[in-house]
Amino acid sequence: MSSTVPELYIAVDVEADGPIPGPYSMISLGMAVAGRPDLTFYTELRPISDEFVPAALAVSGLDRDRLLREAPTAQEAMSAAAAWVNGLRRVGRPVFLAAPAVWDGMFVHWYFVRFVGHSPFGATGSGIDLRSYWMGLTGSEWVQTRQGTIKHELGLHDMPHTHHAGEDAAELAQVFDAVLRRRQPVEEA
Predict the structure, then answer these.
(1) How far, in Å, CA of 11 to CA of 17, rounded?
(2) How many domains does the chain have?
(3) Alpha helix (H) ranges present in the chain?
(4) Catalytic annotation, residues
(5) Degrees (nearest 5) of the Cα angle 41, 94, 111?
(6) Own/partner pairs for 82-86, CB < 8 Å, 24+ apart?
(7) DSSP letter (8 states) at residue 116
(8) Is residue 189 part of a domain?
(9) Domain contains 54
(10) The dihedral of CA 114, 73, 101, 7: what is its sign?
(11) pLDDT of 130-177, one tens digit each?
């Protein structure tokens, strides 16, 4: 039985300055709806702690001092993100999507609960992990599910992974849209 409200797969990407939320900070958040390149969200966030791992911060290329001066607070950024996700309910049911869902989901869920009081993706913050989905779709093993491998299998070339949360969310949305188009429709009983 299918729902009459279409699902909107919201590709989410996070850049952070350390391995876990709380002691470390999410410093940017990007979201993009698979199949709808016109529906995107991006924000940078002011760090919430003094701790950071220089190598983790370097991945994003963001300037921590600039973020401390200019970026919205975590509460402002996450409130805007929640409003954007909730606004999508006019056209469909938001479903969290990430690669890997464990990493991005950990930060996003913690930040929504801590700074908004709840997650617009639900109480558990659950969602779809691209690599797990690909395993189920193709019967491949985990080692064969790297995003670069998936892109190659789908014939998606010239799609760089830049470590800019907005660009990487848009990339993931394009990849997942191609994955969805590849799957076989389930016959109704």
Answers:
(1) 20
(2) 1
(3) 54-60, 64-70, 74-87, 101-115, 130-138, 147-153, 165-182
(4) 163
(5) 60
(6) 82/112, 82/116, 82/119, 82/120, 84/31, 84/41, 85/10, 85/31, 85/41, 85/120, 85/121, 86/120
(7) T
(8) no
(9) yes
(10) positive
(11) 999 999 999 999 999 999 999 999 999 888 889 999 999 999 999 999
Q: How confident is the model at residue 4 (pLDDT cuts 50, 70, 90)?
A: confident
Q: At 94, is the secondary structure helix, strand, or coil?
A: strand
d(CA 30, CA 32): 7
Q: Is residue 1 part of a domain?
A: no
* SS3 (DSSP) at 81: helix
Domain boundaries, position 56: 7-183
We report the CATH number of the domain holding residue 86 as: 3.30.420.10
Handedness of CA 13, 18, 22, 25 (dihedral sign): negative
Contact by Cβ (8 Å): 30, 13: yes
Burial of 5 (0-12, 13-18, 19+ CB in 10 A): exposed
Fill in the amino acid letter for 125. Answer: G
Judge whether 2 lies within some domain.
Answer: no
State pTM to two decimals: 0.93
